[in-house]
Input
Amino acid sequence: MVDIEKEINVVKSFLFEDNSAKCQKVWYGTTESIKDYFEKLNWINVKKVLTVCSSGDHIFNLINKGVLMIDTFDINSLTFPYVMLKRALLLSSSYDNYFKNFEKLTIHSKNEQEEYDLFSMIKPFIVPPYDYFWEQLYLENITKNKHNGKGPSLLSKMYIDYHSKKVDQLRNLYLCNEQEYEKTKQNLKYSKITFQCADIFKIPHFFENGYDKIILSNIWNYIENWNQRTFYNYIVNQLTSMLNTNGEILAAYIYNLNDCMITFDTDYDFIKVPSIDLKGNIDYDKNAVLVYRKK
Output
């Protein structure tokens, strides 16, 4: 059970008292070329997936592919409230207005009252208790700040790595065009998304078996004192048993193949995808995903 009052107080402290030690910022959106590698994977009979939460883009791309049972995890407890806010924006907005409203809450905010008014519009689409979570933050934002269009918005204090609509469209299936957006929006109404604040080592403890895919994103980059063999053994010995027959683990996202020191075991498939920078420039076959398939 989430202690929502505790979560609110921690985030208020982080946002309004600059106590960064108690909270981490969230990623604005994915830094991966999810659209490209999702298009190369098999989604037939994929019904249940475990994924890192992060910015939520893995979640919404999964829903675009018809996956409606999604369990998520992250060491940053702020990620899931952020995903619930994005979910509400998606459900309440047309394709064009999704981008406009998101930018109004981030880089194009005029003042705190406008942010609160927009939040109030999408609040009915936010799953409790996160409607209350965000209302308390937006009300506090009005009380503590008077930026009048010159200071940062509430959300801009909470995220890192802002990128444009063009980049969002290139990296994500669910945002690439209006048709895919509307398909995702309809699927989202029937989806079930859960969250557990946990690191990769706690996955077998918090989650049961029965997954068709497990997505680890680039967690590999953040684990200290792990070599390639330790990582491989953890995948095989701890996570593979959680998969259904023919299930697969998207074990690592690699950002620059030229600098990559990993040697690839024969048990892994190696899917090359383009790198898409913050200006929307594409460098083909520069990134990759390592996929481990259960035998």
The longest strand covers residues 243-254.
